[in-house]
């Protein structure tokens, strides 16, 4: 079991990609990378600097200043995963807010942003032993990943999960807004010109609408163990 592989987990928003990715990384002693957090951090950077808001989108200024956004993950042993830092500030909570979710798809469409983040992601995974989740991990970032998982579940299930997360954090949101955001992000993710969300030909699809977290973990862990026996 000393051989390390690369595990790419892609899929629609709120399909539980990060949950399974964290579980696998902890079980295998791998590094977990939440690539969506990086797109969210660039969105927050753009909001904080006034490049993007509900009614304005200044792409040239964002691109010009992209070099001033320094991203890093720092492992939090209490939480058991790495948190996102933007210019040395922990932004893990802020990037999960609905305001960021509502703008992140626009930021993720910009080729210059994708190029910067894909470069960092490739670097993070160069020694294998990494579980990365996102939208283009199996198709762009790690095309040669040994195991590619594509997660799906119904929009209702996904919106309900996201909504429950917000409620748990004490955030005031309406279910309808969360549901609309899920559908809207799906639409942008699958239709964008650069690196749209598509299932890699060699990815294994897991629909977890009717699976518990434990069942899902067991199914995917079995796939990992099978791969590890054959590398
Ligand atoms: O996984 P998430 O919901 O935190 O991702 C936030 C957004 O970032 C999502 O709407 C699409 C985008 N994203 C992307 O385009 N490519 C990735 N590899 C990860 C996320």
Describe, in plain words, how this protein is organized in 3D.
- The model has no long low-confidence stretch (mean pLDDT 95).
- The chain has a single domain (6-210), classed as Rossmann fold (3-Layer(aba) Sandwich), CATH 3.40.50.
- The radius of gyration is 17 Å and the shape is globular.
- A hairpin with a 2-residue loop joins strand 4 (81-86) and strand 5 (89-90).
- It is built from nine helices and eight strands.
- It has helices at 17-28, 35-48, 59-65, 98-108, 111-124, 137-141, 155-168, 175-191, 213-230, and strands spanning 6-11, 31-34, 71-76, 81-86, 89-90, 130-134, 147-152, 204-207.
- The chain has 231 residues and is α/β, with parallel strands linked by helices.
- The protein has a five-stranded parallel sheet with strand order 2-6-1-7-8. The protein has a three-stranded antiparallel sheet with strand order 3-4-5, with helices on one face.
- 2'-deoxycytidine-5'-monophosphate (DC) is lined by residues 13, 35-36, 39-40, 104-105, 108, 134-137, 185, 189.
Topology, please?
Layout: E1 6-11, H1 17-28, E2 31-34, H2 35-48, H3 59-65, E3 71-76, E4 81-86, E5 89-90, H4 98-108, H5 111-124, E6 130-134, H6 137-141, E7 147-152, H7 155-168, H8 175-191, E8 204-207, H9 213-230
The structure holds 2'-deoxycytidine-5'-monophosphate (DC).
- What structural category characterises the helix and strand content? alpha/beta
Which fold name fills CATH's third level, the topology?
Rossmann fold
Would you state the CATH class?
A: Alpha Beta
Low-confidence parts, pLDDT < 50 over ≥5 residues?
Answer: none
Shape: globular
């Amino acid at each position: 079991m000393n051989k390390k592989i690369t595990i790419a987990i892609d899929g629609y928003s709120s399909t539980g990609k990060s949950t399974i990715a964290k579980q696998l990384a902890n079980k295998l002693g791998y590094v977990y990378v939440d690539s969506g957090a990086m797109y969210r951090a660039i969105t927050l950077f753009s909001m904080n600097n006034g490049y993007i808001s509900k009614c304005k989108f200044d792409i040239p200024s964002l691109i010009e200043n992209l070099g001033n956004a320094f991203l890093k993950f720092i492992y939090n042993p209490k939480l058991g995963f790495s948190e996102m830092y933007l210019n040395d500030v922990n932004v893990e909570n802020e990037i999960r807010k609905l305001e960021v979710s509502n703008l992140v798809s626009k930021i993720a469409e910009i080729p210059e942003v994708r190029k910067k983040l894909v470069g960092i992601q490739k670097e993070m995974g160069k020694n294998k032993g990494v579980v990365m989740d996102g939208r283009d991990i199996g198709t762009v970032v790690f095309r040669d990943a040994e195991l590619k998982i594509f997660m799906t579940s119904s929009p209702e299930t996904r919106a309900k999960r996201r909504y429950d997360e917000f409620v748990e954090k004490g955030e005031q949101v309406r279910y309808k807004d969360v549901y609309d955001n899920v559908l809207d992000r799906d639409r942008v993710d699958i239709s964008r010109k650069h690196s749209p969300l598509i299932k890699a030909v060699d990815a294994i699809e897991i629909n977890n609408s009717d699976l518990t977290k434990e069942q899902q973990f067991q199914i995917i862990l079995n796939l990992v163990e099978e791969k590890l026996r054959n590398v």
